[in-house]
Amino acid sequence: ANIHDILAKQELEFNDLVALLAATGDDRKALFEAAARTKAEHVGNVVYLRGLIEFSNVCRKNCLYCGIRLDNKEVERYTLSDEQIIAAARFALENRYGSIVIQGGEITSPAFTLRIENLLNEIKALSDGKLGITLSLGEQSEDTYQRWFDAGAHRYLLRIESSTKSLYNRIHPNDENHVYEDRLEALRLLKKVGFQVGTGVMIGLPHQTLEDLARDLMFFKEIDIDMCGMGPYIEHHQTPLYAERESLMPLQDRFDLALKMVATLRVYMKDINIAAATALQAIDKIGREKAIKVGANIIMPNITPGVYRDSYKLYENKPCTDESAEECTGCLDARITLTGDEIGYDAWGDSQHFGKKQ
Ligand code: 5AD
Ligand code: SF4
Ligand code: FES
């Protein structure tokens, strides 16, 4: 089918999504233009900031692609103190970021649940409710989700990584800690508790096809997500999946495919929040800006205290590990202005999609 016919459709089907992801030349350009128009019309040309606090690189899991997996003995493990987290939250507030994201490896214990709960209460008090709070702390029990929600977190990010079960199983150990169905169940529970739910996938994984990615997009719609973060897979030499690097497509192609995923998702789910993933910038210096041009409307500047940034390396060549939060803020302002969008300072910038469901 002709690309313009596809883009004019009310409801995209599987074959349409595959065609959009495969688009090259003028067709690719038409996709990007359609995504930019959809963004302007449905969410506006505003980029919202979520100050990213990389809470801890301690993780109980062993995802085969991830640099901070449990069995990587070469990473120095750290956990931020309460004071450091509070200071980062205060920094976000003072710099008019509307929201923060507290992200870390998966830790599950009653003490951990309580610690996060206490931190949430403290952050809520210090910001007088002005800071939106997103959590990205892996799979937890329903009770833990509920307690964190009640303590003031209102969004949760948990990537499905790949919605194709066979591929999910190829990139995770096949043990009781990495069960595809558990991940699905976690996403269901988060929604039930009342969170705005974000998920996402890695793009350019070994053995991943355009059909897999089209299915991922359909999965997002099926479970009716509010937010999405997806970026290129970037191999890390201290991980098992590094052994499969020969079968990967070139980094530039993974980058381009990630842009097409963002653009296609914008056309497909018009009013959700889509993040310009940091991993894009590991490949292309203006990668995040390019994603903003084709549909992304969220950026997550790193506000982790500088000394720890180098230790939170999920993938190699991660940007901003040498910068301080102050440097990133100034840099981002200039970068986003160059895209032609404005920054949504002092605003939560919630998913409009979620808002319409309430
Ligand atoms: N390349 C790209 N993204 C990665 N992540 C983990 N390891 C890598 C990698 N090597 C992503 C996962 C996870 C998110 C926090 O980081 O998708 O959900
Ligand atoms: Fe842990 Fe997340 Fe890395 Fe998996 S991807 S090892 S859960 S930090
Ligand atoms: Fe970190 Fe530019 S965003 S230095």
Automatic annotation (TrEMBL):
Originating species: Acetobacteroides hydrogenigenes
PROSITE patterns membership: RADICAL_SAM
Gene3D superfamilies per the UniProt record, alphabetical: Aldolase class I
Cofactor: record remark: Binds 1 [4Fe-4S] cluster. The cluster is coordinated with 3 cysteines and an exchangeable S-adenosyl-L-methionine.
InterPro entries documented for this protein: Aldolase_TIM, Elp3/MiaA/NifB-like_rSAM, FeFe-hyd_HydE_rSAM, HydE/PylB-like, rSAM, rSAM_sf
Superkingdom in the source lineage: Bacteria
Protein name: Biotin synthase
Swiss-Prot/TrEMBL cofactor(s): [4Fe-4S] cluster
Binding positions (S-adenosyl-L-methionine): E161, R183
